């Protein structure tokens, strides 16, 4: 099961972006999903930077195992989880 979050609808609302990111990470933890795909889109790159800064927060970073930037699609980020 892969969860997916497309941020195109909330790209200019910072609090909504953080809320959406937190919700998808919480859902992944609750469902023990192996991966979350986050789509900030290509644009200027500011939204992707916002997403990466969010994922670097200490309390968020401890929830996942690694972040992968899609080498073929600049507008996509994968967050991988490891469950025991």
Q: How does this structure look, described?
A:
- The chain has 84 residues and is α+β, with helices and mostly antiparallel strands.
- The protein is built from three helices and four strands, in the order βαβααββ.
- It has a single domain, classed as 2-Layer Sandwich (Ribosomal Protein S8, Chain: A, domain 1), CATH 3.30.1370.
- It has helices spanning 14-31, 46-56, 58-61; strands at residues 2-6, 35-39, 66-69, 77-80.
- Helix 1 links the parallel strand 1 and strand 2 (35-39).
**How much strand?**
15-25%
Oligomeric state: single chain
In the CATH hierarchy, what is the architecture at level 2?
A: 2-Layer Sandwich
* Class by alpha and beta content: alpha+beta
Shape: globular
N-to-C SSE string, H for helix and E for strand: EHEHHEE
Number of helices: 3
CATH level-3 fold name: Ribosomal Protein S8, Chain: A, domain 1
In terms of topology, how is this protein built?
Blueprint lengths: L1 E5 L7 H18 L3 E5 L6 H11 L1 H4 L4 E4 L7 E4 L4
Parallel strand pairs: 1-2
Antiparallel strand pairs: 2-4, 3-4
Give short descriptive properties of this protein:
about 80 residues, alpha+beta, Ribosomal Protein S8, Chain: A, domain 1, 4-stranded mixed beta sheet, 3 helices, 4 strands, about 20% strand, globular
What's the short story on this structure?
The chain is α+β, with helices and mostly antiparallel strands and 84 residues long. The chain has helices spanning 14-31, 46-56, 58-61, and strands at 2-6, 35-39, 66-69, 77-80.
